[in-house]
Amino acid sequence: MKTSVFHPEIGEITLLVRRGMSRTIFSVSENGVRITTSPNEISTLFPLTNERIQWILSAKQKIENKPRKHIVFNKNTILKTNKFTVIFKENNLIKSSFIARYKDSVLEINYLPNVDFSKKQDCIKNIIIHFLKIEAKNFLPKRLKELAEKYDFSYQSVKINSARKRWGSCSARQNINLSLFLMLLPTKLIDFVLVHELCHTREMNHGKNFKTLMKNIFPEYDLLEKRLREERTL
User: N or C of the chain: less Cβ packing under 10 Å?
Assistant: First the structure.
């Protein structure tokens, strides 16, 4: 038997009940927190001990801190975001290492001929993030409102942040946070994340009811979830 329970500190926990288990196994991975136990042990699991809670929270934190695969920039890099294309162009007339020019959905980053790209990755990322944030603030709140109206959801507020570990989140008070790095994704995946957070206004966990809500809108839920995990950020 497989079920889902919600813990106020940990969040969603997947509970697997299997006959023949000789001991209870706690595991934490990128797919979430899982407890595998026997039918006879269920009544002794909850409430979890403080020691167990802290172990799980620590394990989750380590996973969240694990860096995603990041884009490494060089003079030949061409990066297509949802709203613009980033290109690099050598320019020996500029006075600083980089100068950015944004026109007609193209972000042209001019660079000095002798610049060492390997030592300027953070500088390049900061330039791109500046424009991603502008586009995110222009696009994401409006798109969230459109999807909420289309699928009959309601929420209290929406904010744009610079989170790299999470594409979005929704609080118990229905306040939604969205990462500006969503603008690196194709529109289909952006919509998938936005609807994901809207579904959390009704279901705060990722249990059966949540997945039913998502699959009613995105029948290809499992495929899109897999694609999202493979996406990179800056």
Answer: N
Tell whether 73 is covered by a domain: no
* Claim to verify: residue 87 and residue 179 sit in the same structural domain: yes
At which of 15, 34, 65 does a domain end? Answer: 65
Distances (CA, A) of 135 to 81, 131, 161: 10, 6, 12
Report which of 16, 20, 24 is spatially closest to residue 41, judged by C-alpha positions. Answer: 24
Domain ranges, residue 183: 79-229
User: What's this model's pTM, rounded to 2 decimal places?
Assistant: 0.72
Q: How does residue 66 score in pLDDT terms, banded at 50, 70 and 90? A: low
pLDDT digits 0-9 by tens, 121-160: 999 999 999 999 999 999 999 999 999 999 999 999 999 9
